[in-house]
Amino acid sequence: MLKIHPALAADATTRPVLVTGAAGLVGVPLVRALRRGGHTVVAVDDGSAGTLGRLAEFLPDDGVHVVIADVRDGISLTSLMREARPWAVAHLAAKHFIPECEAAPGAALDVNVLGTQRILDACAVAPPKRFLFASTADVYATDDAPHAETSLVAPRGVYGTSKLTGEHLLRDQAHRLGISGVVVARLFNVYGPGDPHPHLIPEILRQVTAGETRLSLGDLSSARDYVFVDDVADMLSSFLASTVTGIFNVGTGVATTGYHLVRLIGDVVGRNLVTEVDPARVRQVERKTLCAAPDRLVSAVGHPATSLRDGLAATLAATTVVPTPAGVTG
């Protein structure tokens, strides 16, 4: 186990936050947001998603300590918690790409359920004041209407089931551990720079940045609530800094179909994008609509600030777009 920098350990003035999954899509922007808020950060990741290099930006920062560790390694986590004694924990680490979870359910449950229990076990040696658990909108029952936090939960797949189990573990054990401030953030469809998985937006952008104007995609008729990753990070940081507790949907309240996404991205890059269905990309089980009712979120920390078009433009700006040859319109 790496030694924690003295400035990060048990310093109430900087309110240290331990972030698991710190190299992930949400993890890196959350570390940035926490640093802007004056927190020191212990950034934990095992590198299994191939994104560990994203943490390199924090190496010159004495306020961030990077630790390579697996959330299933209870001995290492307990040692880390005892040494760092964080004021708060943000538990983001998970297997969350649904096709991978469905293909290897045991591995998903191992990380998402056992890993969460290991984090809770480690908290027993130095209970944090605040604990944020990144859950998912996939816990909700299928319904075309926007989901409130009180909506029926009935996940249909292993990912949603694993996250709902994590919520139950936290709910049932927080009081025993002496954690007084618990927030469960049910994330809707988060997008932005740095997503290593072929979700719909990254896949569209991958094909567009390769110069394609005819895109091979799956079912574009389903609608999702897309929320920009920097907005998500700011809201998670705000949850930790506040005194709010409970379950919060993190979404915009607007559902957008895949067809509309393609049109928006085409507008941003100045191309007429044509789509065709690749049967291999069509999921066997697919919700038609998944959208948040974000009223509780707005009351607690505000509404996501970034429009979908601006968020897509910012995501594209982080990549290299291949110009369309003269005279080619799709």
Automatic annotation (TrEMBL):
This is UDP-glucose 4-epimerase. Belongs to the NAD(P)-dependent epimerase/dehydratase family. The lineage of its organism: Bacteria, Bacillati, Actinomycetota, Actinomycetes, Micrococcales. Transmembrane segments: none annotated. Residues 17-251 form the NAD-dependent epimerase/dehydratase domain. InterPro entries: Epimerase_deHydtase, NAD(P)-bd_dom_sf. It comes from Myceligenerans xiligouense. PANTHER family: DTDP-D-GLUCOSE 4,6-DEHYDRATASE-RELATED.
